[in-house]
Amino acid sequence: MLVVSSAGLGIWLWINGQVGVGAIATATAMASRINGLSHWVMWESARLFENIGTVEDGMKILSRPHAIVDKPKALPLKVNQGAIDFEHVNFAYSDDKPLLRDFNLHIRAGEKVGLVGHSGAGKTTLTNLLLRFYDVKDGRILIDGQDIRDVTQDSLRAALGLVTQDTSLLHRSVRDNIVYGRPDTSEEAMIQAAQQAAADGFIPALSDAKARHGYDAHVGERGVKLSGGQRQRIAIARVILKDAPILLLDEATSALDSEGAYAHEYSDASGHVGIIIADGVTISASWERIEVNDSGFRHKNRTATSNDHDFTVFRRYKGTIK
């Protein structure tokens, strides 16, 4: 509109002999330039307001107060043996859907316990509560007799090593991902952890677009350049290197070949308290005790060992033996 108006006015003035052709050309070019700049300003203004909204949403998230904070006189957790107790625990993500009701579980020092049950039974919830991502509604959780609500969250999580089913890695080298929880470790200790996690078989063959190889190769955002099993093996190497007294393994070998998986990953876990979560019991069968509940942890769970009738029945139910 601006260009057309300028050209029309120039032609009218030229007809009346008030301007020359050069003035008309100059005015039309300037109007065209101003028109283009005005479109750019409007476009950038729209993007500016869009970015303001994004920043505002981000500030709301960053300024949100922590739902769970340490008590004013919270002390560091002292793990001597690693015994864990869930005492009369009640918990629900929403008030109308209780998940844990009067749940009790005692894990002795150095014991390896498998938690087996259907999806939605509350298995992963137990690890979330132990890590104190949520507080229990009633009851308490103890580690070596210390209520986890009375200790600092930093010391609590430093004592726990966690490997989950959905493992995400940093967009850094394999080395950086393994030593993430213990950056001051030696090269020899890092390689030994990778060997214990059976990750040394594929790491030397890794490479990236910048010709970095082996432990120096970058794994991509969230580890997209690796398979699910490779990501889990690197995560297992990381938790082995951390050497936390308590291991939490939430379907940590779901993407690995089942044969001998535990013999490789956790052969050096002796002396640690271990909790493994699984839908089936193929891997858990090598552990000392298995907590089985077909209907979830809302009701009293039962304990099964490899020689127990309940254990055999559950394995048949899951189709792991004939």
From TrEMBL:
<dbReference type="InterPro" id="IPR003593">
    <property type="entry name" value="AAA+_ATPase"/>
</dbReference>
<keyword id="KW-0547">Nucleotide-binding</keyword>
<keyword id="KW-0812">Transmembrane</keyword>
<feature type="domain" description="ABC transporter">
    <location>
        <begin position="84"/>
        <end position="320"/>
    </location>
</feature>
<dbReference type="InterPro" id="IPR017871">
    <property type="entry name" value="ABC_transporter-like_CS"/>
</dbReference>
<keyword id="KW-1133">Transmembrane helix</keyword>
<dbReference type="GO" id="GO:0005524">
    <property type="term" value="F:ATP binding"/>
</dbReference>
<dbReference type="GO" id="GO:0034040">
    <property type="term" value="F:ATPase-coupled lipid transmembrane transporter activity"/>
</dbReference>
<dbReference type="GO" id="GO:0005886">
    <property type="term" value="C:plasma membrane"/>
</dbReference>
<keyword id="KW-1003">Cell membrane</keyword>
<dbReference type="Pfam" id="PF00005">
    <property type="entry name" value="ABC_tran"/>
</dbReference>
<dbReference type="InterPro" id="IPR027417">
    <property type="entry name" value="P-loop_NTPase"/>
</dbReference>
<dbReference type="InterPro" id="IPR039421">
    <property type="entry name" value="Type_1_exporter"/>
</dbReference>
<keyword id="KW-0067">ATP-binding</keyword>
<keyword id="KW-0472">Membrane</keyword>
<dbReference type="InterPro" id="IPR003439">
    <property type="entry name" value="ABC_transporter-like_ATP-bd"/>
</dbReference>
<dbReference type="InterPro" id="IPR036640">
    <property type="entry name" value="ABC1_TM_sf"/>
</dbReference>
<protein>
    <recommendedName>
        <fullName>ABC transporter domain-containing protein</fullName>
    </recommendedName>
</protein>
<dbReference type="GO" id="GO:0016887">
    <property type="term" value="F:ATP hydrolysis activity"/>
</dbReference>
